[in-house]
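Re: flavin mononucleotide structure - here you go.
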Amino acid sequence: MSDPLLFTQKKIGNLILPNRILMAPMTRSRTTQPGDIPNQLMAKYYAQRASAGLIISEATQISCQGKGYSFTPGIYTASQVAGWKEITHAVHQKGGRIFCQLWHVGRMSHSTFHEDGQPVAPSALAPDAQVWVVNEKGVGEMVDCPTPRALATQEIQSIVEDYVHAAENAMMAGFNGVEIHAGNGYLIDQFLRRSSNQRHDQYGGSKENRIRFAVEVITAISQAIGPEKVGIRLAPFITQRGMQDEEAIDTILLAAEHFNRLGIAYVHLAEADWDDAPVVTESFRQALRRKFHGAIIVAGNYEPEQAEALIEQGLVDFVAFGRKFISNPDLVYRLIHQLPLSPINPDAPLFGGSEQGYTDYADFQQLRAKGAI
Ligand SMILES: Cc1cc2nc3c(=O)[nH]c(=O)nc-3n(C[C@H](O)[C@H](O)[C@H](O)COP(=O)(O)O)c2cc1C
C-alpha cells in the first residue's frame, strides 16, 4: 500500500482520530461479580489497545432488564460507573479514545436474569437463538432464549429513559461518546424488523413505525449529551436469530435519513462475518453515503487491503477490526510496519476467565525482545 489512508487522521464528531483503524466492540465477559462491575483487568486490556483510532467498548447493558449474558458489564449503577472511570482513565493516559457501546438485548436473554423470569421484546416471539449463561456451579453454557413478553406501549418510554440515563452515566465515567447497539438481533433491531416486530401500535407495522423506537432513542440521547458524541451500530445483513426481513435494507436506509437529520457522529455497519454471508453491494454503500453525511464505519472480517480500498473509493471512513485486536494489542503498529499478526489462542476463553487469552497477548516488540519472533 503506498501512503495508505488507513494511517491518516480523520474527524468523527468533534474528535480527531489519528488513524482509521478502530477496535470493534467485543464482549469478553470478565466483570467483577456480583454487580457486573468493570475492573482493573479490563482497564489493562483496553489500555493495551489504546493506539486504535477509537476503541468501542464491549456491549454494556443500560439496565438490569437489558441484560442477556453472564458477566457482561452494566452502566446503570454507581459501582459500574466507578469501574468504567478507571478504564477510560487508563485509555486516556495511553493517549487513546473510547466510546461506550450501549446495549439492551431485548429477547436475546434468559429467565435467570429477570425477576419475573421473562425477557422483554416488541412481540412475544422467541428468537431461535442462545445466550451464554453461567450456571450455579460456575460453568458457562449456551442456553435457549425463552419466549419473551411483549412490551406494553407505555413501557417503551421508560426504556428510552434508561438509554438516556446510561448515556449520561457514560459521560460521567469519562467516555468520549456512546455507540447505540442497534444490530445483531438485539432490542432496537427487534423493533426494526417485520419478523420480530408484529405490533399494532405506533411502534409496529410500517417502516416508519418500526424505526420509531430507534429514532426516539437516538433523539433523546443526542439531546442529553450532544449528537456529536453519538454513533449507532446496525447490522442490515444479519438473518440468523430470527432476523430475516426482506425490507431490512430499506428500513435501515430510512432510519439513516433520520440519523442524518439529527447530526450524529457515525453509522457503524456490522457486516456479515460468517462464511456464506451476502456480499455488501456498492449500491447499498452509495445509498448510505447519500442519506447519511456523518462518518461511516464498517466491520466484518476485513483485511487491511480491503479496508484501504473502500476508504480510497470514498465509500467508508473507518474500518473496525475485532478478532485481530484480540491477539494483536498493537495492531496499528503492526499494520503500519507490515509485521506479521499473532493468531488467537484457541485454548483460551473468549468469554469469561481472567488474563489468559485477554491481557496476555504481547506487542510485537515484546515478542521480538523475548526471541519469540
Ligand atoms: C468475542 C467477540 C465478541 C463480540 N461482541 C460484540 C459486542 O459486544 N457488540 C457488537 O456489536 N459486536 C460484537 N462482536 C462483533 C464484532 O464487533 C465484529 O463485528 C466481528 O467480530 C467482525 O469483525 P472481525 O472479523 O474483525 O472480528 C463480537 C465479536 C467477537 C469475536
